[in-house]
Amino acid sequence: MAPVLRVFHRIAIVVLREDVAGQGAHFDPEDPSTEAPARARWTTAHRRAVDSPNMTLFRDALRPMGGGSSRDGVLGDLAEYHGLAPEEALQRCLHWEDTSVEEWEAAPRDSADGLADFYATVESWSFDLLWYAYLQSLGYGYPESVIVADRVGRHPRGRGSMLDLGSGAGVTAQLFAALDYDVTLADVSKPLLDLARWRLERRGVQADYLHLPAELGEDAFDLVTALDVMVHVPDPAETAERLYRALRPGGLLIANYDVRRRSRSSAWHLYEDDLPLRWAVERAGFRPETLIDGVLWVYRAVPTDTRAWRLRTAWAWVRLASPPATAVRAVRRAAARAALVIAYAVLGTRR
User: Fold this and answer.
1) CA dist list (Å): 32 to 29, 35, 36
2) Closest Cα partner for 90 from 104, 77, 105?
3) What is the model's pTM?
4) CB atoms within 10 A of CB 133
5) CB 65: neighbour CB atoms within 10 A?
6) What is the DSSP string of 262-296?
7) Which residue ranges make up each domain of the chain?
8) pLDDT for 160-208, tens place per residue?
9) Contact, 189 vs 210, CB < 8 A?
């Protein structure tokens, strides 16, 4: 991606975080009105991922065992698991957000018990996660799991160990199992973990499963992925510390922070700003190494008993948690909201 386009890409990420309209309905690639993926807007990492051998493995993770397409596998899994007709499964995929709002508003969520109840009962996310994986397999969605696999590759010792935190429907873990990692899926949502186990076992994928807050162990993993997860965690500092203990020295944590301005359609995104989340991760003992596309952070677990770490942590506080840092971020968010107002005025829409 050219430098100018990279700048616009980063600006778009900042601005869209302030949009309160929500994601809205998914689209169906087989609808005649659906346009082809806009390759010209893809980042370099996105383009490489779509053409990567790892994308082939990702698509294979979605296909049914007896053969067929990724779409066949996604709708077949959801229909069979939930006892639905395929067409009903499709509609629940497309309109998952409406159902998620209903599930969120079915009970108070302003306490730890209320939040735990949501995660223990939510079903709409299984439709969202698998359909979005299908969209990624065709180039429509941002293929974060494949981008991570391209960045990490196979473990240099031949067989690594990987923890997928917030494993959802299990597709990321499937991808890394195909790359010869011993995979462990961990999720606070029992419905999602049960679905993932069902999907992987019927495809013959060996894995371990942890229903959080189960113990993660110590020095147990070479790699932890936490994709679209940290924004749903009510205790990010404790979570980051647990991940640090679970990783072997020098291990990698790859995470993103899908923060959104609070609204009905994003109420389960618990944070509007990524600074507190990034501060929690860095102070736990993780050194940022790379930021991919302004979205995916690659961290390395480093010793926390050295002078270098203390200096890095002090600088991280300045960047992420100090009053000047939070003030600058408040100004940036206000500017982003103003840009949205102007954009919708020009486009003749309102959100």
Assistant:
1) 8, 8, 10
2) 77
3) 0.92
4) 26
5) 10
6) --GGGTT---S-SHHHHHHHHHTTEEEEEEETTTE
7) 40-320
8) 999 999 999 999 999 999 999 999 999 999 999 999 999 999 999 999 9
9) no
